[in-house]
Amino acid sequence: GDSVTQMEGPVTLSEEAFLTINCTYTATGYPSLFWYVQYPGEGLQLLLKATKADDKGSNKGFEATYRKETTSFHLEKGSVQVSDSAVYFCALSDLWGGSEKLVFGKGTKLTVNP
Amino acid sequence: DTGVSQDPRHKITKRGQNVTFRCDPISEHNRLYWYRQTLGQGPEFLTYFQNEAQLEKSRLLSDRFSAERPKGSFSTLEIQRTEQGDSAMYLCASSLAAGDWEQFFGPGTRLTVL
Fold first, then answer.
1. Which 3 state secondary structure label does DSSP give B23?
2. How far is CA A69 from CA A26, A52, B44, B45, in A?
3. Which residues contact B9 (CB under 8 A, 6 or more apart)?
4. 20 to 30 A Cα–Cα from A45, which one of A34, B26, B69, B91?
């Protein structure tokens, strides 16, 4: 079945540091890819998405590019802030294969220190 | 738009008891999804509905679990004869079957089985 593997956490960075969270996927079809974020005490929120190869999703300074050749969708941010501290989940959905369910990675906890 | 709501937010029960959770989706959304998230893991898909029709069920949804969406609005998830392994966060999400299919998540119901 489809699966998502993301880098193990936790990740601890200083404010203004560069962030990369790796995500790779396995899918039988042509999935759409997502990054969700869960801030402390809050529900999951969509951070960004990409629906086809070479698409770049971006939001709040975060970016991720859909790389079909490496089956990857790594999350990056050039300068993190304390407010970015959260758990980040990579996910896929094989809409074109007829399944709307989201398949999530295990999550990566990010802590940003001032 | 009040977002997806779930009730209760927390439930503590004894092993062997039955529990029922409720999810109210965003009002115009016709798709509704249930996921389960255990500590340190990403959410896992359980089932989803389009209007009142249950379109897909995960193998995780054993015969002790049942979900309904009787009038295509709110949904209930019932767990019969709860086991300690059922302790988890139960998440509900909703979406429109159109546009970008984004799933909006509720805050979750945390179940603790003693």
1. strand
2. 12, 12, 26, 27
3. B107, B108, B109, B110
4. B69
CA distance B1 to A99: 27
Per-residue confidence band for A43, with pLDDT thresholds at 50, 70 and 90: confident
- Give A1-20 pLDDT, tens digit per residue: 889 999 888 999 999 999 99
Q: Give the number of other CB atoms < 10 A from CB of residue B53.
A: 9
The answer to whether residue A79 scores a pLDDT higher than 60 is: yes
Across the 114 residues of chain B, what is the mean pLDDT of every consecutive 10-residue run?
89 97 93 94 94 89 92 94 96 83 91 97
Touching B: A residues 34-93, CB under 8 Å:
36, 42-46, 49, 89, 91, 93
Q: Distance from A46 to chain B by nearest Cα, in Å?
A: 8
Indicate yes or no: CB of B58 within 8 angstroms of CB of A101: yes
What is the tally of helices (H) and strands (E) in chain A?
0, 12
Give pLDDT, residue A100: 82
The span from the CA of A101 to the CA of B57, in Å, is: 10
